[in-house]
Amino acid sequence: MTETWWHPETLARKRPFLDARRAAVKAVRAYFQAEGFIEVETPAIQRSPGIERHIRPFALSLREPLDDMGDETGQPRYLHTSPEFAMKKLLAGGLPKIMQLCRVWRDGERSPRHEPEFTMLEWYRARTDYGAMMTDCAALVRNVAKVAQRSLANDGLFRRGDQVCDPAREPRRLTVAEAFFEYAKIDLLAAADGTPMPDPEALRAAARGQGIHVSDTDTWEDIFFRVMLDRIEPRLGLGAPTILCEYPANLAALARKKPGDGRVAERFELYACGVELANAYSELTDPVEQRARFEADRALHAQLYGTAPPVDDELLKALGQLPPSSGCALGFDRLVMLATGADTITDVLWAPVT
Question: What is the pLDDT of residues 288-297, one digit of tens each?
Fold first, then answer.
């Protein structure tokens, strides 16, 4: 029988997880306050929700008061999939360190680790690169594990099924290319025959050579993520957290390319127990290059879903004033789920989307 989320027995079962969640919120805010961050609040309704290839936003219409002719004026708007664009504008306006703990929305996402509406922790540091985000992430997972340990009297370890991760340990740093070679025996940056990536035929041959099923119509990106899901992600963040870094540049639309190797970008994802917790990068500050990347991603989004969010021209203007910076987005509900040992993400939510 399906569990009713507001039933007293359900709430009683979830209450220890929810108490740990409240403690985790306090711990996160305490960390950033000690680091001198300003906590900001930006609108959930935006002209552009973000242009991620495989993230579908919720669209809505913003209606202003009736004009002089008595006609309604409805303007297309979106619920943000991340507060990134608004926060970068604040960073360009001169704020040096900002953070936000807010609700975000992504359509078509629901699973034991996904909800269409969830809580995201996002923060930015001016005049730093993504190395600063690695330090922050390691500290945050340790702090949340500690408060969950006190709240639940557990051993402070993250668990998911039979997978265990000790957040007190220093994260292992692994490049994407190293992960592909270690876990899938694929030379990602040179593919199978020495052809520079992202050549889909070379990567297709390399994947098939390792017994990974791919079709003749799969794109380079399709094959990349199939290898990631099949061979790599389940092995990340076991024993200690994993920082998977230096993503291929074509999979880092908002990140700065790595100096000296334009094939990869200064982007990383944080993993624990095979679960992605955070996505971070050194920010791209070139508005011309950013516009070109947006247009490429819009074309792919339209191809996949029949429509694409608009480009945020105000963001591009702000990038021209953005100092070298780094930023990170962390899935707060997932972090609490692992820290408490909850089976699903809804166990750490006061109420799910219904």
Answer: 999 999 999 8
Query: For 312-345, how does the pLDDT look when each residue is reduced to its tens digit (9 = 90+)?
Result: 999 999 999 999 999 999 999 999 999 999 999 9
Radius of gyration of the chain (CA): 21
Quick one: tokens of 280? 């971070």
Best CA proximity match to 284, nearest among 235, 337, 320: 320
Q: Which helix (H) or strand (E) holds 264?
A: strand 261-265
* C-beta separation of 168 from 162 below 8 A: no
Tell me the pLDDT tens digit for each residue of 218-271.
999 999 999 999 999 999 999 999 999 999 998 999 999 999 998 899 999 999
73: CB partners within 8 A, 6+ apart? 63, 64, 67
Between CA 71 and CA 47 the distance in angstroms is 21
Residue-wise DSSP of 307-323: --PPP-HHHHHHHTTPP
pLDDT band at 151 (very low <50, low <70, confident <90, very high): very high
Give dist(CA 126, CA 314) in Å, integer.
19
Residue 315, both tokens: 């963001």
Q: Is the Cβ–Cβ distance between 276 and 233 less than 8 Å?
A: yes
Given phi > 0 = left and psi -120 to 50 = alpha, else beta, which region is 274? left
DSSP string, 74-143: EEEEEE-S-SHHHHHHHHHTT-SEEEEEEEEE-BT--BTTB-SEEEEEEEEEET--HHHHHHHHHHHHHH
Give the residue from 286, 270, 249 showing the smallest Cα distance to 334: 270
Please report, to the nearest 10 degrees, the dihedral formed by the alpha carbons of residues 106, 319, 35, 147 taken in order. Answer: 10
Tell me the pTM. Answer: 0.93
Q: Which helix (H) or strand (E) is 284 found in, with range?
A: none
Token representation of residue 166: 């000790």
Q: Average pLDDT of the chain? A: 93
With the CA atoms of 27, 31, 32 and 33 taken in that order, what torsion angle do they form, in degrees rounded to the nearest 10?
90
CA distances from 37 to 29, 34, 51, 91 (A): 9, 8, 27, 12
Domains of the chain (ranges, CATH numbers): 8-63+74-171+240-348 (3.30.930.10)
